[in-house]
Amino acid sequence: MIIRLIRNENDRPSYLVEALYDLKRLAVASDESAEWIGEAVASLNLGERDAEHVWLSATVLEEHGPPDPQWHLNFKSMIDYAARNGWVSEVGWVRAHVIPPT
């Protein structure tokens, strides 16, 4: 699952969910700066950025899922795996890698 942060036509942040069924990875992609990414995820109520990663709300991510019970089971498995590895915060945010601009 990839959250692609974009600057829309009004110069405001927006996002697209890509690779929705790829629940073996979680990443944020953008052609913008790290500072802009941090501001974007906060203003979109997606989570927050630290020095190396973006922490995303698992609840918000799951809301983008299809009406497919199997997808939601797979999503829960992804979050459980992340939790076992210390990648879920106390408030339920899951750590995502940042894909550098191309």
How would you explain this protein's 3D organization?
By secondary structure, this protein is of the alpha/beta class. It has one domain. It is 31% helix and 28% strand. The protein is built from three helices and six strands, in the order βββαββααβ. Strands 2-1-3-6-5-4 form a six-stranded mixed sheet, sandwiched between helices. The longest helix is centred in the C-terminal third of the chain and has 16 residues, at 69-84. It starts with a strand and ends with a strand.
General form: globular
Structural class by helix and strand composition: alpha/beta
Overall pLDDT score: 95
Query: What's the main sheet like?
Result: 6 strands, mixed
Summed up, the helix count is 3
| Tally of domains | 1
Distance between the termini: 18 Å
Q: Return residue spans where pLDDT drops below 50 for at least 5 consecutive residues.
A: none
Main β-sheet, spatial strand arrangement: 2-1-3-6-5-4
N-to-C SSE string, H for helix and E for strand: EEEHEEHHE
Number of strands: 6
| Rg value | 13 Å
- The proportion of residues in beta strands is 25-35%
Instruction: Work out the helicity level.
Output: 25-40%
Outline the secondary-structure elements.
Elements: E1 2-7, E2 13-18, E3 27-29, H1 34-43, E4 47-49, E5 54-57, H2 58-63, H3 69-84, E6 93-99
Parallel strand pairs: 1-3, 3-6
Antiparallel strand pairs: 1-2, 4-5, 5-6
